[in-house]
Amino acid sequence: MYPMYSQTLDESLFLAVKYNNIEEVKSYLDKGANPNAQDEYGFTALMYATLIDIAKLLIEEGTDVNIKDNAGATINVYC
């Protein structure tokens, strides 16, 4: 788990996604991390996902694939 590196569940979720740790992603989602949270660039965790299993999990947990980042792009631009 990554709590010492971040301040919130949402930030921890982002780190788990970036480190490709699906078990941690599940754990943070179970604890209430928001799959639609956006970072300072407007990116969601899904926009950082590089593993298909993590992307599927985030979508199953309610990630809105139509959220736009600060540049106005959705996940479709990054796939």
Automatic annotation (TrEMBL):
<dbReference type="InterPro" id="IPR036770">
    <property type="entry name" value="Ankyrin_rpt-contain_sf"/>
</dbReference>
<keyword id="KW-0040">ANK repeat</keyword>
<protein>
    <submittedName>
        <fullName>Ankyrin repeat-containing protein</fullName>
    </submittedName>
</protein>
<dbReference type="InterPro" id="IPR002110">
    <property type="entry name" value="Ankyrin_rpt"/>
</dbReference>
<dbReference type="Pfam" id="PF12796">
    <property type="entry name" value="Ank_2"/>
</dbReference>
<keyword id="KW-0677">Repeat</keyword>
